[in-house]
Structure formats: C-alpha cells, structure tokens
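Structure tokens please, single chain.
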Amino acid sequence: MRVGLRVWAVAAYLIGFFVVSGSAQDQTSRARMAAIQKRLTQIREAYDRLPPRHQTLLDGYSHIVQLAKVFNQAAPRIMNARRSAMPMTHVELNPVFGGGDSGLASVNDPSTDLDFSGFDGITQSETSTAMCGNQVVVGFNDSGSELQTLFSGPGGLSFSGAAVSSDRGATFKDIGFVNPGSNFTNFVIGDPVLMCTNSSTFYYTQLFSLGDFTAPLTGIAISKSTDGGNTWGDPIAAVSKNASSFSAPGHFLDKNWSAIDPSNPLRIFVSYTDFDSSGTSATCGTQPRAAIEMVVSTDGGQTFGNPIVVDEQCGNNAVQASHVAVSSKGTAYIAWERFTATATELRVATFTSAGKLMPSVLVDQRVLGGDVFLSGEIGARVEQDLQGEFRDLVALDLAVDHSGSRNDGTVYLVWDDGRNKSISDIAAVESVNQNAAFITGGAYSFTDIFISRSTDGASFTAATQVNRDRQPVHGRAGHDHFQPAIAVDSTGRVGVCWYDRRNDPKNFNIERFCAVSENGAAHWEESRIKGTTFAPVHRLDFLVNPAYMGDYDGLTSDFSGRARGFLGAFEVMSSGMNPDVKAWTFR
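Here you go.
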C-alpha cells in the first residue's frame, strides 16, 4: 500500500510533463522528459554495477539513483495523462515552516515546500557558505530545486539551491535552483562548496553528470556568478571522465571540495573522489579503485589542468571526503579519510606553491562513531549510522590561517571521533542491494569533536577535544557530537561548529553548538545556539537517500579579510519535521 501511494505521488509530480498534443512546445517537453528519463536509467544501471563498498561510500549520486527508482515506477502510468494545474504556493504556511527561531536567519524560502505535494517533505540541507564583505551566498542540496527543474527548468535537472544576503547574513533571498544549463542531459547533483573573491564574484562547485547517451560523462562542475550570487552561468566541467554505464564500467566522481588561493584569486583548487571501475588503472589493474584527485585552475575557473592523484586505494580499501584549503602564500593542503581493513586514517598532503605534491602524512586514526556496518560480502567497514538511523558519512573539515596574524599558515584539521566511549549494541541486518548484506559491528560509539594542528603540514599535534562536556564514565548513556565545520577569521581566531546531543539524556534531540579559540585551538569558548533543537527526522522525502540527513554543513569567515567573525548555515527541522536551512552569525 505504501509503495503504491508513493508511486502515485510521483505521478502527481510528473503529470504536467506528459501532455497529449501536437504542438512544438509539447514535443519539446516530451523529448526533454524522455532524455531525462534515459539519463536517469543510465546512472542507475551504472550504480548497480559498482562494488558494494563504492555504492555505500558514493554520496551525491545516491539521490539521483533514488529519483531514478521512483521515476521509472511512475512514468509508465502517466505517459498519456493530461496536464493538471500545479498547487498554489502556500505562503500562509511560512510562519509554521519558517519557525521564527530567535537569532537565526531563514536561508531557504520554506513557504514553497508544499508547492508540489503535501504528501512528501522537501529537503534543504548540506550547506556551504561564502562571504566577501557584506555579501553572503549559501548553497545547499535542495530536492525542491530538483522538482522545479523537472517541471519548468531550462534543460536538465538541478539538485542545487542557493540563497543570497547583502546584509552579512541578517536576511536572505532564496533564488531557487542553480542553473543546470540548457542541455537536457546536464544534471547538477548538489554537494555544494561555495567560494568568493569579492562581493560580486562567487563560485559554486558541485557534482555534475553530462555528455550524450553514447558517451556519458561524470564530472565536477564549477558555476560562476558575477552579480553576488543572484544569477549563475552555465556549469563548466572542472574535470570529467567516462562515466560508468551498463555496457561499460567507468568512473563516478563524488564528494567535491574547492578553495581559492588568497595570494592569487585566479588560482582555484578542486578535489574529489574518483570511484573507478574501469579496470584500466596502472596502480590497481582490473581491481576497483578509489582515488582522491585534484585539479587546478590558474585563470579563475575557465580551464583546469589534468587530474593530480593525491591518494589511491585498490580492491576493498577506499578513500573519501577530501577537503582542500590554501594558505596566504599559495600552499594548498588536502585532507581525506583512507579506509583500510583495520583502520580509518585521517591523512593530509601538501601541494606547494611551486606545484609539487608532497607525500601524505597520517594525522590520526579515527574511531568511527555510531553503529559501524560491516559488509558480509567483503568483510570491511563501509558505513556508520548514528542513533536515529541516519548516516554520518563526512566527519571532517580543514582550514588554514591566512589572516597574516602570528598563527598565519597554521593548518587545522577537525573531525568527530568515537574513541571516548563505546557500548555493546544488538546486531542488525540491513539490505543495501541484492548481493550484499550488511551487519553492525555489535557496538555503538558516541562521538566527540577533536582537532589537530600543524605549522608546516608535515607534522601534526596530538588530537585534543573541542566540545567541553565529557562522556559519562558509567552506564550506557552517552552523547553524539558530529559533523564539525571549521574556519579562521581575519584576526586568526578559529571557529568550529557542530551538531550536539548532550542536552538529551536519550541522545536523540540535536542542537547546534559553536566554539571560538583566540589562541590557535589551545582553549575554546563554547556556545549553544538557541532555537536549534530538533529530532533526527528523515525518510520523509522520497527523492533523497533514506539514510540521509545532510553530510556536512560549512562555516565561513570574510574571505576579503575586512571583518572578523564567522557565519554558518545549517539544517534545522522547522516545526520538528521539515528540514530547512538557517544561518547564525557570531563575532
């Protein structure tokens, strides 16, 4: 019964596209929809061919795969249906969904969340923020943008939304979807990373599916705005590779990150993960390969050089979640997670201003939090889910001080870690696909926020804890602190924000906490952000991965260096059930 309802919900979403008419406009709409459906099918078939570990670690494409599943169920029922009017915008519901949280700014426009359906929720989450002077742009994953572009977009699909502020984050204007370009087979798939060089020039980096049906490509897109984030040019592929397809194994590019060189704003770094099933790697041969790679632009994102391999692992080992940051002298640092059969390593590599990649260093071994799932097929750690059954896939962030202060050049790596307390847990079974059964490791680890720093990128300090509370020594109680974000402001102060469960004895309700250090991460002043309490509500939006509740939320400072302080956008469940993006500024 539930599946049937969801199928007809999708039918209600898509019905406007399938109009029985002979008009040229009608034929274009049908051709566009057929192209979108064909591309969705290609992506899903390629995803089904991936090794189990790559399927679990692959992030952004999982939402497109979810759309492909429901789309193909609904399309045969509605191919000949007549167009029906779309619902009116529910402006009257803005006070309900918008919240009115004290001290918080609403980033996305929540009044549009019922534009397409009152049956399923609309998700805005996984944020990145850029600030130059008073101009602020927040990018976020947005299933509403996916539906907007499905109904009335200029070409392909966009899972990316954005909002703009001209008063340093006090108020925001939701601009809707980020332009996917006019090509019907262009999909921009979210995972936003925002950057700026001045109050007019902003960049939006995101996942990208492109190319024709005979030669589909997977890529990382960079979009540029020259009017402060209000409009965006067509996406440009910073890197693209032959995509995996049903007929030929290839690549999936995932989890992009990007940064601008403060000493040369035309120099842009983009890192990403390459899940490579092509069987053509010189290192891995016919084995599956996972690699952290990076491309560099020296002309402001118009063109990029060839991929630079930072780390690659073969077979059951993998890598994921790279972040890149650049010092005031043009040295880039790349951080990522390396998953082996016995450990999860946090590693950092240095890319010098002269263009030389130095060998990576091991910063620490991270203890995965929550329930860690093991693959019964390959016997390796593949996923961690926190209480409430949502994943914690990206649990690190990286920043470099380029303030010109006494700590200029210091590299900070922050992550969540379950080393302080674990309890036994009842094993559970989850079916990820027909061929791989996943079982829990039999323990639940409560996470805290840890940080390590380096003055040269070659040696890092021992990890220290950022959050001030401590895990209970006795009993089964504990608290999760997860998905930290970090930034350094114009004075050299370090800011870290994260999700926190310390105030709920049962470890379900989530709040937002932030901390600031005036002395290079040696001591922290911590604050709880009021009005951010919510339960882990997910599985409400059938367009996104059911285990997804956002994988990261960024923190930023003024890239232009004019003002001190930080601004962070993050997910809050408004009214306890509707995921929206809020922002908080602290100085």
